[in-house]
Amino acid sequence: MDSKLSRRDVLQKSAALGLFAVVGTACSKEQKALSCTDTMSLSSADALVRTTLSYADKSPEAGKSCSVCQQFIPAAPAACGTCKVLKGPINPAGYCKSFAPKAT
Predict the structure, then answer these.
(1) What predicted TM-score, i.e. pTM, was given to this entire model?
(2) What's the pLDDT tens digit per position in 37-77?
């Protein structure tokens, strides 16, 4: 048996490998949805405040999210921030009844 690869075989395999590398890299860069709902470390009173103010990890109202609220204290990019009103992790895309837009 002749185990030599032809030039065509080498080019086809190289092109396929290159395409796989590009697609694999693009897929690995997809961001996971940020979740800031872990309230296990909060006291029952602080958890009740979150519930009473209807905190949601994703805002149901367009243009009203924690990232544009004057109560929100941002953290590093793609990380949960904090809030002056609610205790615990706060999603920049979140929302609660205490929403107050930042002054422009």
Answers:
(1) 0.68
(2) 999 999 999 999 999 999 999 999 999 999 999 999 999 98
Quick check: 53 and 71 in contact, CB under 8 A? no
Report the distance separating Cα 49 and Cα 104, nearest Å: 28
The CA–CA distances, whole Å, from 73 to 7, 13, 30, 69, 84 equal 59, 51, 25, 9, 7
Gyration radius of the chain over CA positions: 24
Using DSSP's 3-state secondary structure scheme, residue 68 falls into helix
CA distance 77 to 85: 21
Name the residue range of residue 55's domain.
32-104
Q: Does some domain include residue 18?
A: no
Whether residue 103 is contained in a domain is answered as yes
Q: Is 14 within a domain?
A: no
Task: Specify whether the CB–CB gap between 65 and 98 falls below 8 A.
Answer: no
Residue 84 included in any domain? yes
